[in-house]
Give the backbone structure.
Amino acid sequence: MRLNDGRVVPAFISQALKNKPVTVFGRGRQTRSFCYVSDLIEGIYRLMMSNYDLPVNIGNPNEMTMLQFAQQIIHATKSHSKIVFKPLPQDDPKQRRPDITRARKILGWEPKVPLASGLTQTIKYFKTKV
């Protein structure tokens, strides 16, 4: 991810590291789930090495609201940022949570890196970019 690519992780971290308002759309009730890159790569690798040729969701099924995620980023960065709310875009998905049943069953895979640990590493990376 790049710092200004418009995705929620770099956007929230960048805003928090700069002590700028963290922008949450709508009331922040829409959910997302986050998978650390090493877990994602392991899942994709296992799929590539398997003989399975149908779609398999690789991701983290633990979801949280965007408001909760903003709060966690502010806490993890020790930021003084406040959360500001902007209108929810019409096409913003209400929920993103992968069903990893096939990944568990067929690949013996599930994510291992807890969100807090992944955020620590991600924040450390982005500190060098801000």
